[in-house]
Specification:
This protein has helices at 3-11, 24-31, 39-43, 47-50, 83-92, 109-115, 150-157, 168-173, 217-231, 246-254, 276-287, and strands spanning 16-21, 53-60, 63-70, 76-81, 98-104, 116-130, 142-144, 177-181, 184-195, 200-208, 236-241, 258-270, 297-299. The chain contains eleven helices and 13 strands. The chain has two domains: 3-124 and 265-299; 134-255, Gcn5-related N-acetyltransferase (GNAT) (Aminopeptidase), CATH 3.40.630.
Length: 305
């Protein structure tokens, strides 16, 4: 996209009120329209994660949005809401130089590209189950994983050549279940985030060694993690899957997971690596703010008096 196109994109965002969000109840209310879609951001309302996260809201002529930037579990961004409102937030607060979009909607991609280079995009779909809809399976011989299992875990995730860098601390903080062949870990499922306070969790990192696929192991480890999350007070469990991976979709469906919104994930790199343009736009937006609203930034024009 050319600089002129980017400038026209910023001009299109006129009339949006952008503000920091610091009250967890307010944030929860803004994210609750589609809780399954917003699960990752809702999970970061847990006190230990919230302290390392920033939430921004935008309200304007065509709708509203909420964006989270967090360093609690890696450098991640979540975008929820109307695309132009997302763009208004990112024009002022684009987040870290490098990060990962853990949750966005397909219609957010043009807005994201105004402020970021967007690469390695994954087109996914959200699936979720609850304590009422979960269909458990007869458990097999699985074992919960701990930090001491991290070498086995990284070896399994690296089977097909991808980089793996899980730490023992990360495994101990999360919930992981694995299936073993002797001492060898051959299938695993874990969690990205779990929030008993919000009664929601994001399950993920499901992987089975290629030689052990087709035996239902992924379904078993997913069921085990789901079962424990529900027992710990997370009344809704969410995961993300490639909709073209029909065996995985079928397996999750038999566990009571139901398809929901389309989701995109991607790598993000800020276009303005030094952050000077967003800094200038924030300065100008604050000058346009109301006298009694020091924390409100207006994108594009002066607010009505």
């Amino acid at each position: 996209m050319t600089d002129g196109a980017i400038d026209r994109g910023h001009a299109a965002m006129a009339g949006y009120q952008v503000m920091p969000l610091t009250d967890r109840r307010q944030i929860e209310a803004r994210l609750s329209e589609d809780r399954a879609f917003s699960a990752y951001a809702l999970g970061h309302l847990e006190p230990q994660l919230f302290a390392q996260s920033q939430y921004w809201g935008a309200d304007g002529p065509t709708g509203h949005a909420t964006v989270m930037h967090s360093n609690a579990l890696g450098s991640v961004t979540v975008a929820v809401g109307e695309a132009e409102a997302v763009a208004a937030i990112l024009s002022l607060h684009p987040g870290p130089r490098l990060g990962y979009l853990s949750t966005g909607a397909p219609e957010h991609l043009p807005a994201l590209r105004r402020s970021h280079l967007v690469t390695d995009t994954l087109q996914m779909v959200r699936m979720s189950t609850t304590s009422f809809s979960f269909q458990d399976v007869d458990p097999v011989d699985l074992r919960p994983l701990q930090g001491r299992d991290v070498a086995r875990l990284n070896a399994l995730y690296g089977t097909e050549g991808g980089p793996t860098h899980y730490s023992a601390e990360a495994v101990d903080r999360a919930i992981y279940y694995g299936a073993f062949d002797g001492d060898r870990l051959v299938s695993v499922a874990g969690t990205h985030v779990a929030s008993p306070h919000q009664s929601i969790a994001v399950l993920g990192n499901v992987f089975t060694h290629p030689r052990y696929r087709g035996r239902g192991l992924a379904k078993q480890v997913t069921a085990a993690v789901t079962r424990e999350l529900l027992a710990r007070g997370c009344g809704e469990v969410v995961l993300t899957v490639n909709p073209e991976n029909t065996p995985a979709v079928a397996a999750y469906s038999t566990l009571g997971y139901r398809q929901g919104s389309a989701v995109v994930e991607a790598r993000l790199e800020r276009r303005d690596l030094l952050g000077l343009s967003p800094l200038w736009r924030r300065f100008m937006a604050r000058r346009r703010g109301r006298p009694d609203g020091d924390h409100i930034e207006w994108v594009g024009h002066r607010p009505p008096r």
